[in-house]
Amino acid sequence: MAAFDPFLPLRERCVGCYARLMWNQLTIGLGGLLLAFPGHASQPDPFAYKFVMTPEEGPVDAAVERRYTASFNHCQKAAVTTAANVTCFRDEFARQDETLNRVWRTVFGRMPANSLGRLRAAQRQWASQRDPFCKSKAAEFSRGTIAPVVYLDCRVEQTIRRTMWLSALR
Predict the structure, then answer these.
(1) Which of 37, 98, 155, 169 has the fewest CB atoms within 10 Å, i.e. the most exposed one?
(2) Cα dist. 66→57, 82, 116, 164 in Å?
(3) pTM for the whole thing?
(4) How many CB atoms within 10 Å of residue 147?
């Protein structure tokens, strides 16, 4: 098997990937045509999710901020080193992940049976994309000691946001 070469064009690296890309472009183009015929427009996916991150320099999402635990806030006030901040975020992630799992079980239990497969698939997709998303955010700070804090902060925030999203499902 040949070694992966990121500089090869997509169609030469992965024939299936290129075919999927072409199909996606075709269906996106057809989607525009279908919207021109009112009876054929597709409904938006109720389980679609977009990752959002609070900007370093910008307004804080108050709904997200309210979800951080008192233990985390206390830890942050006492933290004076990067290692201490990492510990605060690591512990908060465990707490927020537990909350997410509890909310997941509740939401999954109340959803109609015909939605469960799509909800499960959406949750798995979110879980598989969260860490790469957060790694990309931390990569912006890869030359500094703050990168692990940014990564863990992102994981906590994304878990809080997903918990809020799941809670809003009807």
Answers:
(1) 37
(2) 19, 23, 29, 11
(3) 0.70
(4) 17
